[in-house]
Amino acid sequence: MTFTIEPIKCSQPGVDFGVSINDLDLENLSDEDFKELEKAVYTHQVVVIHGQGHVTPETQYKITKAFDPEVDTYGHGAQHRAQQSVIARDLSPLPNVPQVQLLGHGLVQDHWGIKERKLTHPNHRVFHHTPLSLEEEAQDKTRFYRWHMDAALYKLNPPKVTTLFGIQNPEPRRQTLQYDDGSGQTADVQLGTTAFISGQHAFEILPPDMKELAFRTKVKYAAHPYLWISNARARSNGLGMVSEGKELTKEELPEIEESAIKIYPMLWKNPVTHKIHLQVHPAAVEDLIIDGKPMGDLEKVRELLYKFQRPAINPENVLFVEWKDGDFVIFHNRGVLHSVVGCLKDTDKRVFHQCNLSASSEPIPVTEEDFAPYHTDAAVAATAVSS
Ligand SMILES: [Fe+2]
């Protein structure tokens, strides 16, 4: 290996993932170095490669595709372009490499085939049920926008990795992230940071009975999920939706192909470490299927899911990536959740490229054998009695 991997300096005690690399040039990546980089992404979940300001959209696409060579459709396909979709407003494909999306904040001109585009950094105000007041925003307070993995969750398989390239960042400023969920929790963050949590850690910190329940549960995503939630609003900590019955009905949605609806296990296996990750996109979930039986009550589904996922976003478990211009991040999209953070002003400018590709295969399920070390004695005994 010709490059060096170092843990990201992070004071949060629950963060056991994330590395940085200072001595690699992605424009001159050997096959051998790619193999090492791929292993690092699946082992450490988030890899920040510094000093890559010169990387072209073609190279970003090539590197992203190298993780899953058979595919070339953007992770959301064309579904995110539906005007009403909660994804549409955040992304613009580059004309010559449409799998690479331009995102950020402020006016961008003559940028890789785009003549002019006014970008808007996703602001919680358009998505949260109860946003910060304008006074709080003026005091540089902010929120997690939306905890998610990058995935269409309908028709297409979740991308294996996402590459996120921070070309230009706003002038550095600190903001105070507020959870506003009754916990009183806050975090001091860099303006425009990206927040990550590890799905593996999210699983590890669950009590034994919740681990068992997670193993027995499948997650059913809504058809056209980002349209389905387009009138609904999120919790103040960005972890899933508030239940007010505002989801679009089947009649209001485009035609539904039953075979395109995604049902995945709640636990996914890491392809390299073989560790177990709790991996759920909370906002897009329509039902939980426990021991083959659908819960069938959206409010209860969301309450239970929140119980599974809320401990994982405690401040001590969150990695806040502090961007420098030219940072190129590759993250294991099937192993972490992430969130946009930051309330940017008109004068703040941010230019990023993002790429992910709908995967060639479904996530790897956790087998009985994989889960065996986590069975509680009581559960093992119960299974013995019932069999
Ligand atoms: Fe994302």
Automatic annotation (TrEMBL):
GO MF: dioxygenase activity; metal ion binding
Keyword Oxidoreductase: yes
Keywords of the record: Dioxygenase, Iron, Metal-binding, Oxidoreductase
Required co-factors: Fe(2+)
InterPro entries from the UniProt entry: TauD-like_sf, TauD/TfdA-like, TfdA_dioxygenase
Domain TauD/TfdA-like residues, every copy: 17-355
Family label: Belongs to the TfdA dioxygenase family.
Name of the molecule in the record: Clavaminate synthase-like protein
Organism of provenance: Hesseltinella vesiculosa
